[in-house]
């Protein structure tokens, strides 16, 4: 049984207590040498001709990305479809395409200079938030509750940076 979950934009569920954190823009992640790396933000239409790296449909971020393309009436086919954020980041860092996630998710690659995060130019993408999820009515073990508090504190600190 899982005590704590970390996700993006989960559907409302009365059995879950949702704690949003780290509202940051959804970004296109590219290698520093990619043409998009010099941009301050990028519109979905500008991404249509790129080699795209998508997550599998089970990922909330992928559903969100796909809906941005649909809103712009763009029919896109990914070059890659992966099931790990690390794999998407590695492909993008190698210059093999454009991945999509928040800058927090890709923080390590950005800090190492392997990736550049370019915010998606869309009002909804500007406030893309991550969430910590716990079950309503289930008491956490002392260790899990301590972890929840540590995560919440870490999220608050990262939001001010």
Walk me through this protein's architecture.
With 161 residues, the chain is of the alpha+beta class. The protein has two domains: 4-21 and 130-159, no CATH class; 26-126, 3-Layer(aba) Sandwich (D-Maltodextrin-Binding Protein, domain 2). It has six helices and eight strands, in the order βββαβαβαβαβαβα. The protein has helices at residues 44-47, 60-71, 85-93, 107-111, 123-126, 142-159; strands spanning 4-8, 16-21, 26-30, 53-55, 80-82, 99-102, 116-119, 130-135. The strands form three sheets. Strands 1-8-2 form a three-stranded antiparallel sheet, with helices on one face. Strands 6-3-7 form a three-stranded antiparallel sheet, with helices on both faces. Strands 4-5 form a two-stranded parallel sheet. α2 (60-71) links the parallel β4 and β5 (80-82). The longest helix is centred in the last third of the chain and has 18 residues, at 142-159. The termini are far apart. The mean pLDDT is 86. Pfam families: LysR_substrate. This is LysR substrate binding domain-containing protein. Residues 2-154 form the LysR substrate-binding domain.
